[in-house]
């Protein structure tokens, strides 16, 4: 007779970083005193990490790690729809496609209060690259970006979010 085996899960595995002690220092320097901490990593992972940061041109592991932490925190902050953000939107599209250029332009004119800057590059005979910088509440800016990227004929779309404050 087969016995059902209970699935055991490690208690600490996958623990979310929410338990980290809040570190809000009230010194005049908002960055506070730089603190050092040790990081344990298995050799294979460390080799890959070193190769990655070399490719990216970081001078030190610390600098690379700081950027990764900032990116992770920025990403987490985005769960808040009301967060104030600056978003860079990159679009690649075929300008020959019927109505696409007009629709993209119309969408942008409908969101004048969000768009801070635009850059248009004629990539080749057919394709255009557009970079938009939009600023506002994350929820609205994200929906705006998605509405452009999801348009039929947009071949590539990318969004980079920077949180403010
Ligand atoms: Ni063009």
- Could you report the average pLDDT, rounded to the nearest whole number? 83
- CATH architectural arrangement of the domain at 84-163: 2-Layer Sandwich
Note poorly predicted spans.
Answer: 1-27
Order of helices and strands: HHEHEEHE
Under CATH, the homologous superfamily of the domain at 84-163 reads ACT-like. Chain A, domain 2
Strand order in space, largest sheet: 2-3-1-4
Radius of gyration (CA) equals: 22 Å
Question: What's the total number of strands?
Answer: 4
Structural class assignment: alpha+beta
Shape: globular
**Ions, cofactors, ligands: which are bound?**
nickel (II) ion
* Beta-strand content bin: 15-25%
The CATH topology annotation of the domain at 84-163 reads as: Alpha-Beta Plaits
User: End-to-end span in angstroms?
Assistant: 61 Å
Can you walk me through this structure?
The chain has a 4-stranded antiparallel β-sheet with strand order 2-3-1-4. A hairpin with a 4-residue loop joins strand 2 and strand 3 (127-137). The chain has helices spanning 43-56, 61-77, 100-109, 138-149; strands spanning 84-94, 115-122, 127-137, 154-163. With 165 residues, the protein is of the alpha+beta class. It binds nickel (II) ion. Nickel (II) ion binds next to strand 2. Nickel (II) ion binds at residues 95, 120, 122, 128.
Concise description?
With 165 residues, this protein is α+β, with helices and mostly antiparallel strands.
């Amino acid at each position: 007779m087969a016995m059902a085996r209970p699935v055991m899960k490690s208690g600490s595995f996958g623990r979310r970083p929410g338990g980290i002690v809040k570190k809000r220092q009230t010194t005049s320097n908002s960055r506070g005193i730089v603190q050092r901490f040790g990081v344990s990593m298995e050799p294979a992972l460390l080799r890959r990490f070193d190769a990655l940061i070399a490719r990216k041109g970081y001078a030190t592991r610390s600098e690379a790690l700081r950027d990764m932490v900032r990116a992770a925190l920025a990403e987490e902050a985005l769960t808040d729809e009301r967060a104030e953000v600056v978003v860079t939107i990159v679009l690649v599209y075929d300008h020959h496609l019927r109505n696409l250029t007009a629709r993209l332009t119309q969408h942008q004119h409908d969101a004048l209060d969000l768009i801070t800057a635009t850059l248009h590059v004629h990539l080749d005979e057919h394709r255009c690259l557009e970079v938009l910088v939009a600023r506002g509440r994350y929820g609205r800016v994200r929906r705006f970006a998605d509405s452009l990227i999801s348009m039929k004929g947009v071949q590539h779309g990318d969004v980079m979010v920077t949180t403010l404050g």
